[in-house]
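Give me the fold.
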Amino acid sequence: MTTKTNHADAARHGRAPTRRIGLLLSAVLILTGAGSSIAATQEEILAERNRLLQIIKEVESDTSLRAAAIAEGADRSLLCSSCHGRDGNSKQPDTPNLASQHPAYLLEQLQLFASGQRKNFVMQSLAANFSTADKVNLAIYYSSMPVLPAPYDKNLAARGKRIYDSVCFVCHGTNGKGEEGFARIAGQKPEYVSKTLHRYRANAQGKADPDEVKRTNPRMEQVTQNLSDEDIRELANYVASLR
């Protein structure tokens, strides 16, 4: 009888933080109007980013909520593991690591995929079926996982530092770990970084392949539009070298 009671108590306590996350999300979304419309202006984009930061900070500031989010996120990550790895370290060279990424950035990208503002058939389908709580849990789970070092070419990396220090540090920081609201790129796979930069450049130059996944971001398009293929190779390897 005691054993059954203990199991029941444990189950109730285990579900309590998850219910609190749901209630917290409902309150924040109602108060801020998050997700009510697709952001169109820079002001709206920044406002949406601040709303997402608020959600993340509320969950991460509470030990029990954070632990519950990590546990739930680990469970949901099974759906993502074939591409991004069980712990967020990608199994494929041209697929990004999610481990140690900023949770607010991950949540923002999931929202963009779900709304169709960011294009990728697999990711759009997955994100559209995730609840907001799922997205928060996944973002916090992946952010808690250590990123594994990526292989890189030391000679290319040495040359890429010059390019990085001239433009990239402004948003991504001198160590590649990103300012608040921007992506951590330190230790990212060079193949993925290279592919992404090529896509930004193609979009900026009006040369995007209609069969390719487009990446649209005015700042990134401005930065990449005059980069050569060799510049991109060097920059991608430097980013991979950062820890």
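The CA atoms of residues 165 and 185 lie 14 Å apart.
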